[in-house]
Amino acid sequence: MSKFKKLIPGWGILPVVVFLAIWEIVARLNLVPGQFSFPPFSAVVMEFYHLTANGVLGENFLSSLTRVIIGFCAGSIAGIAMGIIMGWREGINKTLHPIISLFYPIPAIGWLPLLMLWIGINEMLPITIIFICSFFPVLYNTVTGIRSVNKDYIHAARTLGASDARILATVVMPLALPNIFTGLRLEAGMAWRVIVAAEMVAIPTGIGALLIQAESLIRIDIIIVCLIVLAVMCFAFDKFFGYLEDKMTAKWR
Amino acid sequence: MPSITLKDVSKYVCQAVDLEIFDKELLVLLGPNGAGKTTLVNIIAGLTDYSGSVFFDGTPVDKLPANRRGVGYLFQDLALFPHLDVAANIAYGLMSRQQHRERVDARVNELLQMMKIEHLSSRYPKNLSGGEKQRVALARALALSPKVLLLDEPLSSLDVQTAKYLRTELRQIQRNLGVTTVYVTHDLEEAEEMADRIAVLQNGHLEQVSRPEEVFFYPKNEKVSDFIGAPNILDCDYCRSLGKGVMEVGCGDLPIIVPHDGNSVHRIALFPHDIYISEAKPPGPEVNRFRGTIVDIAPVDDAVRIKLKVGETCLLAEMPHHIFEDMDLVVGKEVFLILKLRRIRVYENKGL
Q1: Are residues B116 and B264 in the same domain?
Q2: For the whole prediction, is pTM greater than 0.80?
Q3: Torsion, Cα of A131, A133, A134, A137 (10° steps)
């Protein structure tokens, strides 16, 4: 199969095209049972065009994207920074680990009711949720990455005259990168899932809010447009971090 | 003044170790796994805490952290930084000293040339062979021109041929640079080939520190003798050259022919597994062939050791278990034995 893939570029596109064709046919022949009509792919594309042209999709998409980017960047940076401190200093790790272990398993969306009361319904609410959603897993993966660096590398750097700060910056951090990227990739997708949930429940703008509005208007085509946008965004974020990771580590791994 | 002195140093298995390593010498730390060899080397490097004192050129360095002791350390698994290419690995120590880029580049080039690895400079460790990694790691350890070089079983992961070749080269480089070196190994042959002196370490205790041939011909106690393979060591009463590179020596009542072309021989040594035992009289000329009586049979690991009395002399022979099973050897039985000529080692100097 892999040989086949090399022979025909873009082979991965074909199943998607077949899937869309089947969707179109099934919808046009009205083969889907149920109360509400199932729109064909072409109708969804048309709706995508309308929503884009009148700016509704762009506006909602941008507010979701802004929230994800701000929350995700802040959460990741904080997670990496704290992860480095915890991974590098055994004492701090021992002290904080039990607390982190308690917070880590709480689903990010579970914080929503509490944050609604504390923060109120405003832009800080989704950003804070995304922050929490990104912070813990990135922290966890960073600590793991730093602690799993072979002690011999650290010893070697030390005998070569390097200070602790230099060892951290030039040996430990680069070697922990693969683990850190695992955390980032995981959370980039998760951030989109969480933002939609938060917007569906609590916030009047964004893709999640558009989804809920479409539901109340029984606009299945709009719902599908939103779902496709979400799928593409999760995919794009994952690919972006995959590319970044490759750029930074593929040479030596 | 010795270059490195350990006084009453203790950590883990190593207890109250005293050791002096002379300027420019290569001292081999020889011992089985778990003897504390790596611990001692880590103590010298300052990579572990310890009690006792370490002196470099008479100055205590116990307060100095590893990054300021100025030792070159070649780790057992080499520990080349996987995310840096060869040139950057070698430059790492120089960059830590914040030297100028041009000076760093010049020194890296010099080391690449010395180790004959110029063509590898932009490769990453994952794309190097075992021997190449070895050279890079050594170049990196030597980059800061350390006064002390520590090598922890550096050749253990290489195939026999490459290891042998690199051993010679390593010795040459060490001599040329005149760097005081501690070389860790569990292999007696490697130790003898490399060492100015050998320090035999067992259970964290230094059993003997002396020149290689002295360790071999004059093992200080049974532990040392056992570790190097319990060789039969015989004093020679007389010796007489037979020409053609062989000599006859008299050890007690045994006339033994040895491969030697030089001065008089004072001691000979032969490993137990180099004594051949048979029940029937073996064919061939009567050279190094004797009759002896079995006085003791004792199993060791996968072999059997047989103590023989040959005239007034006691000899220890060894054979694999399966061969012993096929023979009918019991205490008190008289057997024939052959001392394998080419395996006999001789010691010229008289006494210690």
Answers
A1: no
A2: yes
A3: 140
